[in-house]
Automatic annotation (TrEMBL):
Protein name in the entry: DUF4139 domain-containing protein
Ranges where the DUF4140 domain occurs: 31-128
Provenance organism: Belliella kenyensis
Glycoprotein in keyword set: no
Gene3D superfamilies xrefs: Carboxypeptidase-like, regulatory domain (2.60.40.1120)
Keyword Lipid biosynthesis: no
InterPro entries: CarboxyPept-like_regulatory (IPR008969), CHP02231 (IPR011935), DUF4139 (IPR037291), DUF4140 (IPR025554)
Keywords on record: Coiled coil
SUPFAM superfamilies, alphabetized: Carboxypeptidase regulatory domain-like
A Pfam family of this chain: DUF4139
Chain coiled-coil ranges: 104-163
Chain ranges of the DUF4139 domain: 213-613
Length: 621
């Protein structure tokens, strides 16, 4: 009798040791958005009875990085473990699917009405056919009565036949629409189910308590890109820079009325210092290079589709090695301004294999393949019973003080400069839906003192470019990004704000100014070629004309060049430089001109090249 009693006590103890379960709700309060990914901060409150309880927060994003989860507790309880597990049984809300089902139901109801209308028309035709024997066989009709009867039948039958044609066309169109909708829904249904994540927090209490949880974790499928509006009213006033964040998210959870922070941190990148390996030099014929022969024109656009040709909204497109990027719109289309150094684009979207492609054209349409191996597994991140603090899990018995953020007069944001990162906190709450649509959030407005200078390289481009040069620009914590340009209240195009420059002065191109006319022409009569002894002597001369058609005085810097010899047998003599500044090491000549309204100036450049008669040189390029 002793053993059965001990066994019963043991079983009873095990049953009593099984923790109870309780579902609790958690709301997203703050989001720190990185250029790839975001950190979500949530709050939850609960009341518990004595014992161990597993608190379950359901329906969280399937893109949670389970290694990043942190939980802080406030109250007289102990957190024993934190688990993240996938839930394939709870269907994630899909507003687009619900919308399609609603449209399908409406079209089916419409089809039933059309079928009923067709039946009524058939009945009307039957009634007419039954009564088409005008007055019977033994009753004669006058000509007037006969004509009236014929007109009646003609009118009614014509009306019924026309209604039948319209009904048939509407029925066919509705049936075709229903078939398309059903096919689309069936295709979506056959795709792998994307689970949601449940967060399980095991706690222990000694008496009934009320407590709160603060939960944070990293989530993928979200990000932001720096964008700018740069306005120059005229060259006598400060430059206006409007700093914005283009934020997007497709995490599966809407961010409703949350506080936003935008960070330049990259938590997804490795923090390991790179290793400098041995450089093994071999012959050139055995050396391979990854060469991109396409000349970057500064702009690229296209469409991203899946293997079935359907557009994919929310695909992230990044210029490799920079902060420049964008996401595809609802139609899978994108357009992007490129920095001059851009060579490769990275296309990424959860559930599809990432693609890294050379920039090979102004138009790049990309087809992405589904990554069938990317299946969210049940991930358990557990911790031993703790009192105090453990890596990845924090418990607090007192509330942290909320930092007070100062407010800007123009836009309510606060820059927070940490040891290695910079964050911009937006005081105004925002709602960002999980639909991959881009939302522009204004961060800062700056008025920056700038010096303005026109530049032109007529050998390459005959237009004059206005450059704004900024000093002390580092203190504004700007990031490299696309910028819309406005000059004299007119939109003039887009450029790249190269905020990752190592120079003390930041130059911002404000685009082309058509009010300055520049011509560069070759003086043919001075283009000579003479054979003297064993050497040829060739001459080239150019005339550069600059005219200011603007109503204000301008300063403009003109650049040109003459060739520099790297072979001892080739001799080069600069004949004319129009008093320009000559760099004998590079062959670059620059002229700084001051032009009043309507004024025109002419510059002349000439040089002579001597080389062996058995060789050839290319002077016209």
């Amino acid at each position: 009798m002793v053993k059965p009693l001990l066994l019963s006590i043991s079983l009873l103890a095990n049953i009593l040791a099984i923790p109870s379960e309780k579902s609790i709700k958690s709301e997203i309060k703050e989001v720190t958005v990185y250029q790839s990914g975001a950190q979500i901060s949530e709050k939850s409150s609960f009341t518990l009875s004595p014992g161990e309880t597993v608190l379950t927060i359901r329906g969280k994003s399937s893109y949670i990085d389970s290694k990043s989860i942190q939980v802080k507790g406030f109250g007289e309880f102990t957190i024993l473990a934190v688990n993240v597990q996938s839930n394939f049984l709870e269907e994630k809300a899909n507003s687009s699917k619900d919308s399609l089902i609603s449209i399908l139901d409406k079209e089916k109801s419409n089809l039933l009405r059309l079928q009923a209308q067709a039946e009524v028309l058939r009945e009307k035709m039957t009634v007419l056919n039954t009564n088409k024997n005008l007055g019977g066989q033994n009753i004669g009709l006058s000509m007037v009565q006969l004509k009236q009867a014929l007109d009646f039948f003609e009118k009614e039958i014509t009306s019924i036949k026309n209604d039948e044609i319209t009904n048939r066309q509407n029925t066919n169109a509705t049936t075709e629409k229903i078939q398309r909708l059903e096919k689309h829904l069936n295709e979506n249904t056959s795709k792998p189910i994307t689970p949601v994540n449940d967060i399980l927090i095991k706690v222990s209490v000694e008496k009934q308590v009320s407590g709160e949880l603060s939960i944070s974790y990293l989530v993928n499928n979200a990000g932001w890109f720096p964008k700018y509006d740069i306005r120059a009213i005229d060259i006598s006033k400060p430059l206006q820079v409007n700093y914005k964040a283009e934020v997007w998210q497709n995490t599966g959870n809407d961010w409703n009325n949350v506080k936003l922070k935008f960070s330049n941190a990259t938590p997804q990148k490795s923090g390991v210092i790179p290793e400098l390996k041995k450089w093994e030099l071999t012959y050139a014929r055995l050396t391979t290079f990854d060469q991109n022969i396409y000349k970057n024109t500064g702009f690229v656009s296209g469409m991203v589709t899946d293997s079935e040709g359907l557009p994919i909204p929310g695909v992230s497109i990044n210029v490799k090695g920079s902060a420049i990027g964008t996401v595809t719109d609802i139609n899978g289309q994108y357009n992007l301004t490129l920095p001059s150094s851009a060579q490769r684009l990275i296309y990424s979207f959860i559930g599809f294999r990432s693609k890294e492609l050379n920039i090979s054209s102004d138009l790049m349409n990309v087809m992405m393949e589904e990554d069938m191996e990317t299946i969210t597994e049940v991930v358990v991140v557990g911790y031993d019973a703790i009192v105090g603090r453990s890596p990845g899990l924090q418990v607090r018995n007192s509330r942290p003080q909320t930092p007070i953020l100062s407010k800007s007069l123009d836009i309510e944001t606060t820059s927070i400069e940490n040891q290695t990162t910079v964050e911009i906190a937006v005081d105004k709450p925002y709602t960002i839906l999980s639909n991959a649509e881009k939302l522009l959030v204004e961060l800062k407005k700056h008025e920056l003192e700038a010096t303005y200078q026109y530049f032109a390289i007529p050998k390459k481009d005959k237009d004059a470019f206005l450059i704004a040069e900024l000093v002390d620009w580092e203190k504004y914590n700007l990031l490299q990004g696309e910028a819309n340009l406005y000059f004299e209240d007119t939109y003039i195009g887009r450029t790249i704000l190269e905020a990752e420059s190592l120079k003390d002065t930041l130059s911002i191109s404000l685009g082309r100014d058509r009010g300055i006319i520049i011509e560069r022409e070759k003086i043919e009569q001075n283009a000579t070629r003479k054979l003297i002894g064993s050497n040829y002597t060739e001459s080239r001369a150019y005339k550069i004309t600059v005219k200011n058609n603007k109503s204000s005085e301008i300063n403009i810097k003109i650049l040109d060049q003459y060739p520099i010899s790297i072979v001892s047998d080739i001799g080069i003599t600069l004949l004319k430089s129009a008093n320009g500044n000559v760099n004998k090491d590079t062959g670059v000549i620059d002229w700084i001109l001051n032009l009043k309204p309507g004024e025109q100036k002419v510059l002349e450049l000439a040089y002579e090249v001597k080389y062996p008669r058995k060789e050839k040189v290319i002077l016209d390029r």
